[in-house]
Design goal:
Blueprint lengths: L2 H8 L3 E6 L10 H9 L2 E7 L5 H5 L9 E7 L10 H22 L3 E6 L9 H11 L4 E4 L4 H8 L11 E5 L4 H9 L3 E5 L5 H10 L6 E5 L7 E4 L13 E4 L11
Parallel strand pairs: 1-4, 1-5, 2-3, 2-4, 6-7
Antiparallel strand pairs: 7-10, 8-9, 8-10
Helix pairs in contact: 1-2, 4-5, 7-8
Length: about 260
């Protein structure tokens, strides 16, 4: 019997969320790879009509007999993220899937796929807190390399030096809030770019940091694009793109 099949047979019931890393399947951990290949039940988030970013990462790795559970968001960018309708629809979505996964995980192991690291802006966090409160099933979370790490490596430059302060923020913040946070940090990471790019660009311009900013799209994948932000238009930027500004802090050679 293949090792993957043996692992699936021995798997203890419960929900296991697997951090898949920044996009390149070879950057998954050994544990993540083993769990994915041995999974009998696989759940993953996706936008309706899309294949799902996490599912694409494991394409070709799943066992042929694995049962898949696409968890399709009821809303993504159609409503403001702070609107009552958005919050209500997402809360109901997470409640529903929490119940469905809990029911299945009483007798089976369910592997939930999550791009990057599950505890770093990951959608699974909303299921995790709900499942943890119920305490009815075993819960495990496997860490993954955050997407921003793969992106700053793609630029070929260290993100922080010496005593640099790194700030990580989301592009969904209001422009004035982006400016405030950019002014107090040495190195910057802005997540969730997409249609927020014009606002991020304006905030960088206001803080005098636009010229030092990079945009990394689809980091570590075959479709990776890395460019200075001043050389990129605001059109058709993916939501999971990342804007970076490298720190320029203390380093030994600066004393000479």
């Amino acid at each position: 019997m293949p090792s993957e099949a043996m692992e699936a047979v021995k798997a203890a019931p419960g929900v296991v969320c697997v951090g898949l890393g920044p996009g390149d399947p070879e950057l998954m951990s050994v544990k993540a790879d083993r769990l994915v290949r041995g999974a009998r039940h696989v759940a993953f988030f996706r936008k309706k009509g899309r294949p799902g970013k996490a599912r694409q990462v494991v394409d070709g790795l799943l066992a042929p007999a694995a049962t898949e559970y696409p968890m399709e968001y009821p809303v993504t960018t159609e409503l403001p993220v702070d609107s009552p309708q958005y919050v209500a629809q997402l809360a109901a979505f997470y409640d529903d899937w929490c119940t469905r996964l809990e029911t299945l995980a009483r007798t089976e192991q369910v592997v939930v796929l999550c791009e990057g690291d599950p505890f770093f802006y990951g959608s699974f966090m909303h299921l995790y807190t709900r499942l943890r409160e119920r305490a009815a099933v075993r819960l495990e979370v496997v860490p993954g390399i955050p997407g921003m790490v793969g992106c700053w490596h793609a630029t070929g430059e260290p993100i922080t030096w010496g005593d640099d302060v790194l700030s990580v923020m989301t592009g969904t913040l209001p422009e004035d809030e982006l400016v405030r946070r950019m002014q107090t940090a040495d190195a910057l990471v802005v997540m969730k770019v997409g249609r927020n790019l014009p606002r991020i660009r304006r905030a960088l311009q206001r803080t005098g940091r636009l010229g030092a900013a990079w945009l990394v799209q689809n980091g570590t994948t075959a479709s990776q694009q890395v460019a200075k932000l001043t050389e990129v238009s605001d059109e058709a930027c993916p939501y999971f793109a990342i804007v970076l500004v490298h720190g320029q802090g203390r380093r030994p050679e600066a004393a000479w």
